[in-house]
Amino acid sequence: MPPSSPWCLRALCLLLSASSAFAAIAVTPPASPPAADANVVYSNFLGLSLELSFINYYFGNTTAEIPQPVINYLSTLHAHGSGKPVRIRLGGNSMDSSTYVPNQPDIIEFTDPTANFNDQPVNYGPQLFDVMKGVSSAVGGAQYLIGLSLRQPNNTNIPLLAGDAMKALGDDLDAFLLGNEPDLYSAHGQRPNLKNYTVDDYVGDYSVVFNNLKQTPQGDVLQLDNIAGPTICCFWDLAPVLQSSWLTDYAQQLKYITLQHYPQDNCRGHPSFGVEHYIVHSNTVSLAQWQSPGLQIAAQQKKPVLMDEFNSISCGGVDGISNTFGVAMWTSDYALQMAVQGYAGAYLHARERGVTYNPFDPPDAVAGGAGAWMTNPPFYGMLPVAEALESTNGSRVVDLNIKNSMWDGSQTSAGYAIYDGTSSTVHSLVIFNYKNVSGTTSDYALDPTFIPASNNQITIRYLTAPSVNEKTNIAWGGKTYSGVSDGNAVDATFASSVQDKTMECAGGCSIQVPGPGIAVVFLGGAPNTTVTTNGSSSNGSSATDGSGSTPTRSGDNGAERIGGSIAAALLGAAVLVAMGML
Ligand SMILES: *[C@@H]1O[C@H](CO)[C@@H](O)[C@H](O)[C@H]1NC(C)=O
Ligand SMILES: *[C@@H]1O[C@H](CO)[C@@H](O)[C@H](O)[C@H]1NC(C)=O
Ligand SMILES: *[C@@H]1O[C@H](CO)[C@@H](O)[C@H](O)[C@H]1NC(C)=O
Ligand SMILES: *[C@@H]1O[C@H](CO)[C@@H](O)[C@H](O)[C@H]1NC(C)=O
Ligand SMILES: *[C@@H]1O[C@H](CO)[C@@H](O)[C@H](O)[C@H]1NC(C)=O
Ligand SMILES: *[C@@H]1O[C@H](CO)[C@@H](O)[C@H](O)[C@H]1NC(C)=O
Ligand SMILES: *[C@@H]1O[C@H](CO)[C@@H](O)[C@H](O)[C@H]1NC(C)=O
Ligand SMILES: *[C@@H]1O[C@H](CO)[C@@H](O)[C@H](O)[C@H]1NC(C)=O
Q: Hey, whose CA ends up nearest to atom 2 of ligand 1?
């Protein structure tokens, strides 16, 4: 209950600024800046992984029916991608179990209505590649990872698919992922003749497929040097795979080392932990160190590593965990932490509508049908990452280990510095305030050495929500997808939303970050935010845009806007703090 007298308010504010200056958490540069050869990542670091069997729910059945909302989502990611294509991976269990049918006119046909929910085989035709190409062109560019099955290594369908995909996708083809989670083959009954499918078996199977890829109806696929693996998730360690003959035998053709990993699963309906686990930074640090001996070998061999599928909880997520703001914050934190640990990119997984970890959901309709799309918390987690990493030279990410948060699980703050890929400039700082006390802020004192001499203005953009359990009222830069059905963010009107703030920071300064919330501090100017939705090629609005909206975004150009109201909003929150909530 803030008192109404202005005098009283002012006194409280004075009190608060005095006490918060005292309590400000120091954000200081690392003891040593990142090495010249440190991992360089780009603003398309976070991409989207799509399960094959539901691809037409996202992309539509034909190039003429690509839903405008999906173009809007992907264009938003692309707009912050420094011109880099959006990363999209098409795969999953269903890719391993499905069949490419070159003369099938339809994009997808389900073939086993009784199949396990987590692995639904389909037959798919070349229309799939046309639609993928259409999406790429409509969003300004996409680069695709495509799964190739390894369940029957000498199956002639594999080279057939690889050849046609190569021909149809052209430059949009990034790499082929050969096999999906081979370390689960035995557990999933894929090699009934073997007691235990081993790394040696895998290496042998790989060579069978490799040889077949030399001669496809469309020519030699291997000459693209774009094969990836081992795409393990669970039971094997990466280091022994890399130390086997596999890496040396295929050094030339192996473009990426790929991994898939979830912090926990819900395959039997019993998650081990809730949101509270995801909002502890040290948990995220140790998660990203999974397979670190293998990551080091890959770095020595100069092979980029991709986390080509991840999300909060495998087997479909858990309501109340996977679809919360806490997990949105975790998505940002984990992505930046993977950049620290040496990953080149990571793909957030999406499945059929209703899966709680989906970044966004297609409508309740037939595949590609009209209706309202829904944006879920994980999508918000992608936005701070894309914007913080925006740099034409790429970025090197450093964990600032604020208050020893990399190791101390009791800390509620974490932070990163985003260095230029080649120069010593720091482009941005990303600060996480995991305090789950709505209406409060924490103060962070930015070290003066972060502030460029040429431009001491900083712009702060916030990802906020009332609590870590929030599912809908989430805002990034004062914009939200809450209540939106077409993938175009609108102005957020709820109280926890915070506008961008621009301020002078010569000689260092103190900034406030709401708890819970993320602040991206842009040093020396705001990032580019122009959305280049390619309306002319999208073709989608006529057939499938449920809301009948125009492709022009009502808002993201507004993200350039400098919010004056943030100070008022934060002050209001600060008064509550002073009134005893601390
Ligand atoms: C747009 O639609 C037309 C007619 O339906 C189709 O011929 C064309 O290939 C489509 N263009 C794209 C880029 O999808
Ligand atoms: C927009 O689509 C057209 C037609 O497909 C394509 O030629 C053009 O390159 C696209 N523009 C962008 C920015 O992707
Ligand atoms: C495929 O491999 C299996 C086992 O490796 C073998 O039994 C079978 O004969 C092979 N089929 C073809 C067509 O090469
Ligand atoms: C299968 O092999 C792995 C090593 O590749 C080993 O760790 C595991 O214990 C084996 N499992 C069985 C059931 O033999
Ligand atoms: C976060 O705060 C909200 C509101 O006070 C509370 O309901 C929720 O249980 C808290 N969540 C956690 C993980 O502490
Ligand atoms: C897309 O194709 C599927 C499978 O053939 C079909 O069930 C669905 O109705 C189609 N969607 C539209 C919008 O026509
Ligand atoms: C922002 O856009 C301008 C103009 O297109 C470009 O010159 C600049 O390099 C971009 N900045 C970043 C960080 O991508
Ligand atoms: C990008 O790299 C070049 C070459 O190292 C450097 O001169 C330039 O300052 C860098 N750009 C930024 C924004 O740091």
A: 64
Cβ 393 under 6 angstroms from ligand 8: yes
Q: What is the pLDDT of residue 446?
A: 98
pLDDT in tens, 87-122: 999 987 778 788 999 999 999 998 877 777 667 788
Atom of ligand 5 nearest to the CA of 468: 1
The percent of residues above 90 in pLDDT, for the chain, comes to: 76
Residue to substitute in 137, 532, 533 for testing ligand 2 pocket (most ligand atoms within 8 angstroms of CB): 137
Ligand 1, atom 8, residue with closest C-alpha? 64
**Cα of 139 from ligand 1 centre, angstroms:** 14
Find out whether the beta carbon of 187 lies less than 6 Å from any atom of ligand 4. no
C-alpha dist (Å) from residue 582 to 122, 319, 441: 55, 30, 10
Please choose, from the candidates 215, 212, 129, 208, the residue with its C-alpha nearest in 3D space to the C-alpha of residue 172.
129
**Closest atom of ligand 2 relative to the 141 alpha carbon:** 14
Pick the atom of ligand 8 nearest to 425's CA.
14
Protein residue whose Cα sits closest to atom 11 of ligand 1: 537
Q: Name residue 122's beta-bridge partners.
A: 110
Distance CA 306, CA 382 (A): 16
Structural domains of the chain, with CATH: 6-36+394-527+561-581 (no CATH), 46-53+87-353 (3.20.20.80)
CB 520 within 8 Å of CB 389: no
Q: What integer pLDDT is reported at residue 579 of this predicted model?
A: 30
Eight-state DSSP code of residue 556: G
Distance CA 495, CA 493 (A): 7
Average pLDDT value over all residues in the chain: 87
Predicted model pTM:
0.86
Whether pLDDT at 580 is above 90: no
Length of the chain: 582
Give 174 Cα–ligand 5 centroid separation in angstroms: 42
Least confident range from 125-129, 154-158, 346-350, 549-553: namely 549-553
Is the minimum distance from the CB of 61 to ligand 6 under 6 angstroms? yes
Q: Please report which ligand is nearest the Cα atom of 54.
A: 6
Question: Ligand 5: distance of its center to the CA of 74 in Å?
Answer: 32
> For the segment 567-576, what is each residue's pLDDT rounded down to a tens digit?
333 333 333 3
What does the pLDDT look like over 243-272, one tens digit per residue? 999 999 999 999 999 999 999 999 999 999
Residue 193: pLDDT over 50: yes
DSSP string, 43-102: TT-EEEEEEGGGHHHHH-SSGGG--HHHHHHHHHHHHTTTTPPEEEEEESHHHHH-EE-T
DSSP SS3 for 503: strand
Residue that the structure tokens 């799939």 belong to: 128
Q: In the block, which residue shows the tokens 């200056």?
A: 21
- pLDDT class of 67 with cuts at 50, 70, 90: very high
